[in-house]
Every structure is written in C-alpha cells, then in structure tokens.
Amino acid sequence: MTRSAPLRYGIQLDCLRGMPRGTGAPRVGLRRRLGDDGCRQLAAAGLDVVQATVMTGVDPGACARAGLALTAAGTWGLVPGDGRLEPRPRRWRDAGMVEAAMVVGSPVSTEAERRRRVEELLATSDKVGLPVHIETHRSSITQDLEATCALAEQYPELTFNLDYSHWFFAHGLWRSPLADVVEQLAPVLRRTAFVQLRVSSPDEVQTPTSNETWTEHFLAVWEATARLSDASRITVVSELLPSYTGYAARRADRWDESLRLIARLRDRVAA
Amino acid sequence: MAVRLVEWVESAPGTESVRFSGKSSDAGRGRKAHQPSAGPAEERLEVRVAATVEGIPPLFVAEEVSGRRAQHLWCPAVDDLDMLGALAGRGFDYLAVALGDGLDRDPKSQELLDGLEELAASMTTPVFWHTARGSVGQNLLRVRDALRFRPDLRLALDFPEIYCAHDMLAGFGLWKAVLAEIRPRTAALIVGDGDSARTPLAPPQEGLLALPHRWSYARRQRQTLAAFRAPLVCWRTAHPGVAPGSHQ
Fold it and tell me: Per-residue pLDDT tens for B107-116?
C-alpha cells in the first residue's frame, strides 16, 4: 500500500464550545481563550495542532509552551464587498500561526471569478509567507466538484483543506461507489494539505461518529487522501461543531468523539 | 418515495392565507388564482389540498385531499429511461425523474437529459426533471444552463434538496437570480418541514438556540414558494433508506 505523507493531528476550537456537562474537554468560549491549562490538556491527549477561528481563540504563547502548532480558519469573499484578503493572512502570520484554511468566494461565481480569487489567494499567500489552503465547502467557489477539480489542474501550487462532509452531503456521494468517488476527486485529493474531520450522513451534514456506516466511508476517503496527497505533511483537525451552529442535530461530547475519530484514522494510516 | 400533493397556504403569524388552487393567475403577479403555463399536460393537474402554517415547529400541516399520485424515479443510466414508458396510463399525475449520479459529467449527463426529453415528448403523463442530490440535477447553476438549451424541459424542483446541496442557510440571497430564472420552467415544487428537509435543523428540544435555523429555513421556503407559484406542490413525507454505493 502507498505510504502516506506524515500527518499531524489536532482540533478546531469551535469543537470545544457548547459541550454537555461532564465533558472532559478544555473549556473555551467567546470571551474565554484557550490558555496554558487547555493547551497542555490537548498536548497530553496526543494532539499536535490547534485551529483557531473567528469565534474561538487561543493564547499563542500557551500554544507554543505546550508544543502545539497554531493554525487559522477564515473566510474571504463569501458575500459581495467582503474587502481585501491580505490583512487576514498577515494578521494570522503575525500571531504566530503557521498555516490557514479559508472558505473562499461565492458559489455563483463564473469561471473567471473563481480564477481571480485563486490567483489573488496564491499571490497573497506567497507575499505574506503563510500557506493558505482553500476549503472544499458548500456555498463557496468549491461548491462544484468538477469546477474545483479544474482549479486543481489549472493551478499546480494551489492546495486544499478537504472538508469532505460538504461534498458528500451536497452531491449525494453515498450513491457512488467509494472507488469512483476517490478517482473523480483525485485532482483535489492529490493537492490536499489540510483535512477537517466531520462525518455526514444523507440526512445530516454532521452525524454522530457512532454512525458506523458513514464513519467508515469517511475514514476510507481520508485514508485515500493521505496516500494520494503530494503534500510533504498533512494537518488533520477535527471540526465537529456544536448544535447551535446548525450542524449537529443533538448535543454530544464532541471532544470525546474527536479523540476517537483521530485515533481511528491514525491507526488506519499507520497500518 | 411517498409524496402527497398539497396546496400551499402562505401565512403570516395568525390567520392570513392565500390559496394557490391551480385555477388561474400568472406566476409572480400576485393574483390568487393560477393558470399553469407549462402546457396542456400540466393544465390537467389541478391540485386542491389544504395546508396551514402554524408557526414553528411544525412548519407545515398538510392534508391529503386530492388523491392524485406522483411517482419519483431514479434513472442511473440512459437505458433505464426506456422502461419508464411502461408507467404511461397507470394513473400517475406526473413523473419526477432524477438522472445519473453526483459524479456524472458531460457527455453522459447530456445524454441522460436527451433521453429524458425524448421520454417526455413520447408520454401523455408529464415528465419532469427532479433536482435531487446525488444526480445530474443537483447543481442549480448546471440546471439553469441546461434549461437555457432545452426549452421543453420542466423541473420538479426539490427545495429541501437544493437547500441542503447549496447550503442556502449560509447564502440564500446569492441564489435568488438563479431561482428567478428557473422559476418559469418549474412545474412541480417539492417542499418539506424541518425534519424531512435533510437539512441540519436542530429538533425543538434543542431549545431556543435552534430556532433561528428552523425559522430561517421556514422563511426561505415560504419565500421560494411565494415566488414560484408552481402548479404542483408536493409534500414529501418519507425518505428511502440508503446504503453506500446504492442507487435506489
């Protein structure tokens, strides 16, 4: 079996919000950044990476002291008049972040508009010196599978944050044999340097990871990605969002789910 | 897939109601009666069903009145379309046909659409293209483009499916121009409540934080319905079970 690129694992901090009582997760919130205790807890759980979001922050110094790499999540151009891109990666770089994943542009973009977004993102990433990956996400320029694969082929330097849950859910990929899915998505999978873990079902964009049928499908796609990717290293973060975001249909201990999911993927890729 | 045909009753909080009874009125002109413009076959499809909006949740209350039947079908390949002719004369009011799968591209997707048009031209039962996820009708932009070159094609627009597929919770406004363009070509509009929409709406026991999402979906569905004035509105009540790699 093809050897995988090295993977490093972590968690997106929005995972840790809206948790049920009794969870063992580090506590974060709108006004409560993740500090030293929380970062040490993540490291003790075997994680290497934290992904901060607009909603949930972290003390960069605490991250560094715990040996965690700090990454960013953001958006650009989802609605008209969203402003300039450059200040965002620049701010992240200055905060000590080492890479970023962004949801970019409008799903109703023309091909020329998609290309313009990609070109500006690549130029900015190069200028600022921060790797920025485009996220595969509904309601963005990566809404369409075929168009996204075309971008991957047109821009050899373009890298992706694979959030497969959006494509699975939007494009009914449960109807297609797994091998066909991997083959069709290969242009993007080969260029994937960042992966967000979330499991969908036909009914929910985020279904509990105890749903073994779909969890197994997702693990297989992530494993295939790890083996196909040309990236020198792949960052993998769990992004199991709380119910108030409209993603999860029920409250669950997403900290526990995240650690289990990461452990399963780690075992598969190492095998 | 089981469906019930309903008449949409648009309702503000309280008792306001406007019934689209399938009788007269042009789309979007604000008249209460409706004259289907899609052709003689559709003109037969008068639907008289009552529905009531009583806030959230449940969003819609449907009553089964008409006794009319619709058949939703999935045709993974062109050859499968040939078999649909056997459904003629079986008492269906229309056929809603989803084509191929979510990975299909040209030329296969165009061949499927050619086959669907040929089928529609050969049958007295109206045949509509179903915009379902996991089919070549899942992408609204590609649907719009196909309609531009296929003037006789009519849609069974599945609102819950396109809402989920395009994450309209995040950007409904972006799609208004596309929806406006395909509106005249929509012969059937499929709606559902929050639970059957397959959109990640939290159930009511999740508390107040879930309500904005449910309400957002409800409001957009109402906006869409009000804009479309489709001659048929289908109330979907059941989902088929699915398994990986299955065409069902």
Answer: 999 999 999 9
β A49-52/A7-12 pair status: parallel
Q: List the one residue out of A177, A125, A117 whose CA is nearest residue A143.
A: A117
In whole angstroms, give the CA distance from residue A104 to residue B45.
Answer: 43
Selection from B41, B108, B152 nearest residue A184 by Cα: B108
pTM for the full model? 0.82
The pLDDT tens digits for A130-148 are 999 999 999 999 999 999 9
Q: For the segment B134-162, what is each residue's pLDDT rounded down to a tens digit?
A: 999 999 999 999 999 999 999 888 877 88
In the beta sheet, which residues pair with residue B60? B53
Alpha-carbon distance of B25 to B41, in angstroms, equals 17
| Chain A contact for B203 (CB, 8 A cutoff) | yes
Distance in angstroms (rounded) separating the CA atoms of residues B152 and B120: 9
State the complex-level ipTM: 0.91
Angle at A244 between CA B207 and CA B226, to 5 degrees: 85
Cα A270 from chain centroid?
21
Alpha-helix residue ranges (DSSP H) falling in B123-172? 140-148, 159-165, 168-171
Is B168 touching A (CB cutoff 8 A)? Answer: yes
Helices then strands, counting H and E runs in chain B, come out as: 8, 11
CA A171 to chain centroid, in Å, comes to 19
Report pLDDT for B66: 32
A212: contact with B, CB 8 A cutoff: no
Which chain B residues are closer than 8 Å to A247 by Cβ? 200
